Amino acid sequence: MGRIALVLGGAGSLLAAYIVIGFFVARWLQNLMDGPKAWLAIGTIAGMILGVVNVALLIKKFLGEQNG
Questions:
Q1: Angle 38-67/2-33 helices, nearest 10 degrees?
Q2: How many domains does the chain have?
Q3: Cα–Cα distance for residue pair 8/11, rounded to 1 Å
Q4: How far is CA 53 from CA 4, 14, 46, 67, in A?
Q5: Which of 11, 20, 33, 63 is the most buried (most CB within 10 A)?
Q6: Domain span at residue 43?
Q7: What is the pLDDT along the chain (68 residues), one digit of tens a residue?
């Protein structure tokens, strides 16, 4: 039971990290190329999507180990 809690807690932290990294990469690109402020939203959403995909793969892998 503790292992499941650790995986879910780590998944939340991983998702948050992807969102923050997406924001900072978008801000860096915005400053580098003098882009519009919409890039911040696009970078944050892209980070969130990548994070959700990564968390889904992590959970699928973890549940696959439990079943098999």
A1: 160
A2: 1
A3: 5
A4: 19, 11, 11, 21
A5: 11
A6: 1-66
A7: 677 778 778 888 999 999 999 999 999 999 999 989 999 999 999 999 999 999 999 888 877 766 55
